[in-house]
Each structure stands twice: as C-alpha cells, then as structure tokens.
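Reopening: structure tokens for the NDP complex, inputs below.
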Amino acid sequence: MNILLNENFDAQERLVWRAALSAALPEVRWLDGAAARAVAQTVRVAVVANPAPGSLQGLPRLELIQSLWAGVDRLLADPTLPAGVPIVRMVDPALSAAMAETALWAVLSLHRGFFRYARLQREARWAPHGQRRADEVCVAVLGLGQMGRAAAQRIAAQGYRVQGWSMGPGVAATGFGVVHGEAALPPLLAQADIVVNLLPLTPATAGLLDAARLSLLPPHASLVNLGRGAQVVEADLLAALDAGRLRHAVLDVFREEPLPANHPFWRHPRVTVLPHVAALTDPRSAAAVVAANVRAWAAGETLNHRVDRARGY
Ligand code: NDP
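Re-run output (same inputs, fresh job):
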C-alpha cells in the first residue's frame, strides 16, 4: 500500500517518525509529496502533520487523511483541502496523559504559589504566604474532549473543585461537574480561581478569552492556556495582568509560534512560557494509532475520531 506522508518535520524528527510508522505498518511504502504525485492513482491515504497549504491536491483517489496532531485547525484552514475526504485526528491515551500532567502541574503551582516563590528566589526574598486547601480552589476546564476530560479527572483526583465546560451536554463525567453552552460560561468564569483552556481553535473559540470574559474572573484568578494561542486576546491578557486583575498566566500556545524574542510574555513576571510542549505526540504510541486507523479503513470499518469539518474539530 502506498501512503503519502506529508509533514513539516526537521530531518531528525522525520527519521524517528518514519521508523515508528514503518515498524507499525511494515506493508506500507511511505511516499513524500513528489513521489506520491508520480503515482497519484495509487494513493488513497495521507498521513499528515501540518502539511503545507495546497500540498494535498492532485490525489484524485484519496479516501482518508490521518492527522498526526490532535489539533486540526491549521489543516482545516487550507482552502484547497480535498472536499469530502474523511479526516481522522490523533487520539492517543499517551497524549491525554501528558496533557493531564501538565494541567495538574500548572494548577498545583498556581494554587500553592510556586511561580511566585520562583520569582521571589530571583530577588533573594524570603516571604512565605498562607495556603488554601485544594478543595477551596475552583478550577474551570474549558473543553471536555480527550484532553480536557483527562485533565479535569486528574485535577479533580487531587481534591480540587473542578467544573468543566463543553459545547453540548454529552459529556459523562466522574469526579467533576459539567456545564455546557455559551450561557454557562460567564457564571463559570465568575467562580473560577484557575481557568485551564483546552478548547480546539474554531471560529467560535477564536478570541474567546478577551477583556470582557477575563473581567468576569474573580480578582487574582489565573489562566492556563494549553489549547491554542488565538483563543486568548494577548493584549487583553497583558492588560489584565498589568492591572493586577489576573494573578498569573501559564501559556503553552501563542498566536505566533515560536513566540517572537521581543514579545512581552517572555519577560513578564506574571507569565510562565512553555514552547508548545504541554503534550507532545509520541511517535511510538501514535504510530500504533495510525496503524489501527489505516487497518480499520482498509477493512471498511467505521472510523473513530473523525473531524467534523463544519464544527471545525
Ligand atoms: P476534542 O475534539 O476531543 O474536544 C473538544 C472539546 O471542546 C469538546 O468537549 C467540545 O465540546 C468542546 N468545544 C468545542 N467548541 C466549543 C465551544 N464553542 N464551546 C464550548 N465547548 C466547545 O479535542 P481534544 O481534547 O483532543 O483537543 C483539544 C485541543 O487541545 C486541540 O484542538 C488542540 O488545539 C489542543 N492541544 C494542545 C496540545 C499542546 O501541546 N498544547 C496538544 C494536543 C492538543 P463537545 O464535547 O460538546 O463537542
């Protein structure tokens, strides 16, 4: 079987991914864009990671696009994406587990003031402050998909009061509360000490966390953005931090990545910057997910985790 592998990896990443995918699907010939177009009539599957816009054109028999990434906003932004071809995104328990770890680390650090102590250490200041119990801290998790649910469960298991927010009512939750729909967001923000954003980037979530919504948070609340940078209006976040209306922001994702060296987030005392590493796709487990999906497609089975192009996730 010929499969197009279309990605924007560096040479080292490409070697690792090729090895993992070849081990998981030994029967496959992996083709780059030029090689795939040369045998276009034989290519029915494309495995992609942020492919260049336009690069999935010219494959008339394409039947499946498998994304190596969980977020598909960049893929869907390509106006030339072949219409009607099912897109399956990466859903891997190892990825959700990594995300839950990052979310828990951020919540614990914010709750216990560890980012503040790191700042005080740089100033050689010994300034202990009081401490609340975990069950006195309300954590709002925005987005209750694969990532949000794993994070909410992990945080709730440590004793925090967790409320999740989803689009529809369909989320079955254990250990945390769930609200859904646009009208539920303002009251949720109004009671949140820590907001963890794990929404997909769609027209409905772009710019969601703006001045108006940030102003609903209680004084000294904190934001953890692990979803996508464009969901936060950066100037509004900076203004809220500078005015002391927000205590701290932990940011893993940004409007522009890599974050430009002169961006104020880098040096802001109330911002912790991560270079989009909250949950990295592990080629070893992800290749097994790709293999299972390709084999399900070949057997004519229903595909799991299909992207709904109209909703954008
Ligand atoms: P899913 O598609 O599984 O879940 C999306 C969740 O968001 C669902 O609960 C959905 O609600 C909810 N949602 C979507 N739109 C809205 C809306 N307008 N209002 C309220 N709720 C909404 O996605 P994942 O959990 O797998 O991933 C989420 C995002 O995390 C990815 O799109 C990606 O951007 C980001 N990510 C970041 C990584 C990092 O390293 N920083 C790594 C991996 C992912 P419903 O259940 O009702 O449909």
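The two ends are 28 Å apart (CA to CA). The domain at 93-273 is CATH 3.40.50.720 (Rossmann fold). Marking as resolved unless the reporter disagrees.
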